[in-house]
Amino acid sequence: MVYDPFKESSSSRTLSAPPSSADYLKDSLFRFFAYFCALSIIILVAYIVIELGIQAYPAMEKHGLGFITGTTWDTNQGIFSVLPEIWGTVYSSLIALFIGGFFGIGIAIFLTQSFVHAKLELTFRTIIELLAAIPSVVYGLWGIYVLIPLLRPVADWLHETMGWFPLFGTELSGPGLAPAALVLAIMILPTVAAISADAFRRIPYRVKEAAYGMGATKWEVILKVMLPTASSGILAGLVLGFGRALGETMALAMLIGNVNEISISLFAPANTLASLLASTFPEAGQLEIQALMYAALVLLAITFIVNVAGLAVQQYTMRKFEGKK
Amino acid sequence: MTTKSDMGEFIAKAYQPKGPVVLDCQVKNIYYGDFRAVRDTHIPIEKNKVTGFIGPSGCGKSTVLRSMNRMNDLIESFRFDGSIHYHNNDIYNKKIDPVVVRRYIGMVFQLPNPFSMSIYDNVAFGLRLNRFQGDEEEMVVQALKRAAIWDDVKDKLKNSGLSLSGGQQQRLCIARAIATEPDVLLMDEPCSALDPIATRQVEELMIELKQHYSVALVTHNMQQATRVADVTAFLGVDISQGGRTGYLVEMDDTKKVFEDPQQELTQQYVRGEFS
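Predict the joint structure of the above. Result:
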């Protein structure tokens, strides 16, 4: 029975009653369920990391830290190291983040700051969200058959006229960083745009009103008031987009060229960790599989570091702009 | 005594301003879409005076106030029929950019709305917008002092404006609005979120401000109107045609409106018989 010392001494007309035992039971059950859901995620992540660690352990013992500083992946000699893949992963993702972030935030501003009629806004939004529904392999095919032929004349011209500039230092022979990063940019665009647009929509109307009330032009309102106000949400979108770019596999395996080289040139072929895993796994022997597990662990670590760093920056902007502790 | 429009609607007796008029607001009609929000309201805002707007909820006093610096232009369905003359120009003239109007006619809103930036940057926002060349810090400090919030924030100017309490935020917004010394200041129930002490400070500020500028004040608090307003406009709501259309009932010196109102409706309202 539920303990209720008030019923007796309250006015006899009162309709107030304590929660029933069943109500308390539902309460506990729901709490248990919530804890269970949260805990199962943690357990799953821990299990993945541990399992990967066990599988990768022989390779870790054998290659040590040399695995992430060396530049050779040679199956025949049994030499495995992934610095070019780390470079390719981070470099291609950064370029994609830069391009995708720029356009994603631009689209978010366009969609939320009453540039177009509400109905047109919805149409644009649907189209952009549709981008996220296109399978990775389709992007890969599109990259091979459309983007690379389109890029080639531009790349050739850039290389010929500005070949001294390190970014254009090599010729585009087909697959390479530039097409891979462009496709990545398109793939993360919906994520960045959708999350940034939400951040803009969350800004109370009265903030916009205050900015216009000061006599700011539309450009000043957006740049000086709306952007800083939405910055923590935009950062969250950028971090998620970057995380997606780091882990993207299929389209990259088709477009990046899978060459273990470190080059600053945008047109050079390269490789990424995810693409290495995807393209090497099917024919790998036991030793190579252990090395691949190690590479997967490295990829996981990079993603983890990026997310934690992104969270820290986000917390910082929240404190700075919104005064939240 | 009173006139009627062609449609037989009541039109208030015109108020004869005693001094120079800075903002001559002649509303024929204000519509939101098909909804007629305000009709036949002529309110001249006199220079160096506080003009109070009182009236029951939904009488359109905020709508009229917001029309005075074209804030309502943000609402798509808004339609203004009439004229508001400011220094011999109709601010609703097509050639005039509302952005320019808002730089001269500042506004303080009902709910505090500081920007997500530091307290200092909030106040300096308008100065930077208007390309102020002088000592920015001095102006910021002065504005914060006049808005009666300097003592609360002097040690934390770098903190976010949003870290302040509601009442402090509102005074910060007042500091932001007065930092650029706007020619006319529109205040839309600025004290509704303030405690009595802060309210008194803001009222003192209004009286100080009118030495150099002109203030239009919407208030729900009739005591406030008697304390600070030199002239008071009373707006009523006309529900005869289905909608709720606000209109000017009476405008005169505050003392006259409260002590010897000419209209029955005004009498009832100032006596507190409805609100």
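Residues 21-63 of chain A form the longest helix (43 residues).
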